[in-house]
Specification:
16 helices; eight-stranded parallel β-sheet; 20 strands; five-stranded antiparallel β-sheet; alpha/beta; about 25% helix; about 550 residues
Length: about 550
Amino acid sequence: MLDAWWRGAVVYQVYPRSFSDSNGDGVGDLPGITAHLEHIAELGCDAVWISPFFQSPMRDFGYDISDYRAVDPLFGTLEDFDALVDRAHALDLRVLIDQVISHTSDLHPWFTESRSSRDNPKADWYVWADPAPDGGPPNNWLAMFGGGAWQWESRRQQYYFHGFLTSQPDLNFHSPQVQAAVLEEVRFWCERGVDGFRFDACNNFFHDATLTDNPPSTPAQRAATSTVKRDNPFSLQWHVHDKSRPENLPFLERLRGLLDEYGAASVGEIGDENAPPLMADYTAAGKRLHMAYSFQLLQGDGSAARIRHEVESLERELARTGGWGCWALSNHDVMRVASRWAPEGVVDDNFSRLLMTLLVCLRGSVCLYQGEELGLPEVEVPFERLQDPYGIAFWPEFKGRDGCRTPMPWIADAVQCGFTVNIPWLPLSGSHAERAVDRQRDDPYSTLNHTKRLLAWRRAEPRLRVDDIRFHDAPDGVLLFERGALPHSPTERAPGSLVVMINLTGQPVVIPRPALLEGAVPIIGATVDPTRCVDDSQAPDADWVLGPWSAAMGELPV
């Protein structure tokens, strides 16, 4: 196996528009990222993942690419990117970049040629179909961002498929030429020195070539939906023909072969209502992607029972294929977890620190979203300042993704919190200024310093980075699990395992000690805030007592 640095790594996601503005135009850029890479390195992260900075008309803010090999002038130049990579490597940070290859912008030269006629060299590079007999679209597929997924093109007298915006036509991965062209775009960045890629919507690469209608979703399926809000008609279909197709697996193997030539790593985004089996298949050991994440903990409630269910569901599937997962609680597409899971709707920094502890203790790699280390809550962006087309289309029931994409607060009392000297593209929030980097840097109990301690501990603790996980029954609202080299039998004791206790309730709780964990001794001060850990005066075989919104660690004697 090539260098497996990614296994158990902590990856910090940067949304370039909102990280740091170096030229005063109100939008973040590549030199701004370079200027703050030390912040990411000092956190203890292993890599930085940079969301799209490629040439784009920005109708979906970079996820609609018109040139895969060019930096959009809004963000800088290729030379700026090279400088960023050099600085990151000097800080021992690896660099991952987004690759959005399921679709392009409608301004991409490939699509310009493809739409011009039915007989040009790129005529089949996108998903084209004749109209139904009544002139309507060829099937019932829907777009995630609202409405039907088919757009009429008068020059070809055909419809083209778009899984997202009409300005984001889907590539036809059934074409060998498309696959070859996409792989060459990936190779370009490998040659440029990147260490890996995050593949956007990677289960959307292929569609059913027969264009079969999607079946309606059942009430139970709609109730469990995690990829869209239930008021989005997209949730009324079960998406078995427009994405998550078995034809994707051979292509992912070709992609892995290319990545292995350069020692590059990969993480796939999987948006599917039954994500765990796909995650396992897509990351089958040594064959396809290195790791994958889904929306299972990026949407829905944050109850202990649900978290345990989602983690155990994924672990069962990964055991089948030898794959590897990656966990995230926040990113650029969802409400920030500090607000989404806030107890009784009230943001609390103690609870944010607890969630960081939980994330770092799960099995798999970790993605931290910029500002998560500060405990930033969601920002309420007024309608007149909205930028996100998804939010504009579904307002007010769904307010879009702008609330999690607002600028990073660096200096509390500086103009625009040190993000820019101009009017920022999205508004900053007073609740963010209170949690700015400079305000937290010197507070030993801040969320920022809590995160640093956690990541330092995780980096030095193989039981957390790479070992197994096993849950035990616990009172409502509490997670109790082991990390370590665990035996296959669930009834067999695991000497030397790490015991993790997470109280997600706002009340003190007594945790009866399971027989398999008898003799576990507390670890005081090894991790988080020592004042919130188990009291070391407790006897090794006594019940554990946890305060509200607190975590504690113990270990079984060898």
